[in-house]
Amino acid sequence: MNELWVFGYGSLMWRPGFPFEAQAPGLLNGAHRALCVYSVLHRGTREQPGLVLGLDRGGACRGVAFRVAQGAEEETVAYLRTREQVTDVYVEARRTVRLLDGSGRTVKALTYLADPNHAQYAGRLPLEEQLRIVADCKGEAGSNVDYVLNTVRHLEEEGVHDAVLGSIAAHLTAGKT
Prior knowledge:
This protein is an alpha+beta fold. It has helices at 11-14, 73-84, 127-136, 144-157, 163-174, and strands at residues 5-8, 20-39, 50-68, 90-99, 106-114, 138-139, 142-143.
């Protein structure tokens, strides 16, 4: 297998879970980070779905590109499929990512895009609806509020400010749901 890069835009940024040789901030054009996936397992239930991140169509997303350790490519892809494709709500794709490390390089990186044809695709919900869902839902991995607040904290630690998620987090911490 050729050199494998993986683009993380959420928890993969700070908890990749696979061996990598290098990492760099990266920019993916054509998709943006959004709470656009209904979670029926980790942050919600089938009866009361929560919301988790996906890469949705349009815009751009700043994240982290990881170069997978040589020899660990197949194992990494298998791991990511198990982690990301529990309900097949994401489309596995290779997208061009511009490395923001000063090199000017672009790489083809494996990433997971929200599937707009999947039943769990929430699309672009109004802010009030996102707040209501997040405030009320819990799943096997914990509360949806904790997921959003933890995500925003980690993004900011990585130097990524996501205005929409930041606004949702501010509303949640202020109790304005």
